[in-house]
Amino acid sequence: MPYAIVLTFDEESSLTITQVFKRFKDKKIGTMFFEEKIKPHITLTNFDNISPDIVKERLILFGIENKPIKIQISSIGYFPSEESVLFLNPKTSIELFNFQQKVFRLFKEFETETTPTTWIPHCTLGKYIQKKNLAKAIDIIKEEIVMTREKPFYITGEAISFVKFERDPPKIDWWLDYKLTE
Predict the structure, then answer these.
(1) What is the 3-state secondary structure (H, E, C) of 90-134?
(2) pTM here?
(3) Which CATH class is domain 3-179?
(4) Which run of H or of E encompasses 175?
């Protein structure tokens, strides 16, 4: 069973991004993130096998020892793979990279699918976006999320979360949040 450790966002940012999810669903643009349990997030690492008890114990301490992280979204991105992933791309920052590295080191004894050199930070908005729907999807994102030089779009990572999920079909089994300390 796959697991993920993700960074979830402040309420205002989450509501804005969730509005994109809803509009994608209404317009039948993609097939991902329509389940209520899925929250906007940046995946920090994935595991096929890990001890949930160890993760829970360590994430409680991690939440106490780490502060929320402010992240600027710099652009809309697209992975033109079989999954056709459309996402928000965070502006590269040492702070975000160091945050992910702390999580990676915290669970270094477990085999992970994400290594420090393969991690591409992003907030997925939809998967399986058909080519004919790509322009429409980007228009929806631009309508819901304003990103300009004068008014950048920021998210604040407020919680580190532990998620158990199924890949096919995509389904969340459970989701546990651990707030970062102010």
Answers:
(1) ECCCHHHHHHHHHHHHHCCCCCECCCCCCCCCCEEEECCCCHHHH
(2) 0.92
(3) alpha beta
(4) strand 171-179
